[in-house]
What does this fold into?
Amino acid sequence: MKKLLTLYVLALTCSAVGIYDVEPTLNEEQIKLYDECIKENNAKSCENYLDTRNYDKDGYLSLKESLEVAFKGCDELKNAYSCHMVANYYDEGYPPNKFIQDNKEKSYEYKLKACEIDKDFCLFVGNHYNIKYIDTKDKKDKKQALKYYKIACDNGYEYSCEKYKRIK
It folds into this structure.
């Protein structure tokens, strides 16, 4: 009976804590990309590390190392995708990371930085202003949204052209 009670308590503890609530760890490929980004100053490795489509199978973007890669890739190595990810971290925590606080102003700064590095990322600055326009109906915000959508469109980013036409 004592063994059964112990197993029952253990089962409750596991379900209360969550059997999958463990810190994610980096796999071999992620460690390689991390080292190439941080130690070898390889901007493309920073970008590849942060590419959620390929590598975020275990939630590793929530790790402190992922923030380090994003900031290094953006601030030091001038990689637009890294800046975009920093903006996402500041923008209501996507991807979630407990080491950074939501900050709309910082998010905007990093969206703008990504846009300055690669004109395709101006789409996200346009989105920033478009959301403001939807909320406030301030024509200045619409004008700014159109400006940044056009920059990305003129750079060949077709989706930005569609957004530009939609709000014009």
User: Anything to note?
Assistant: Residues 25 and 135 are 40 Å apart (CA to CA).
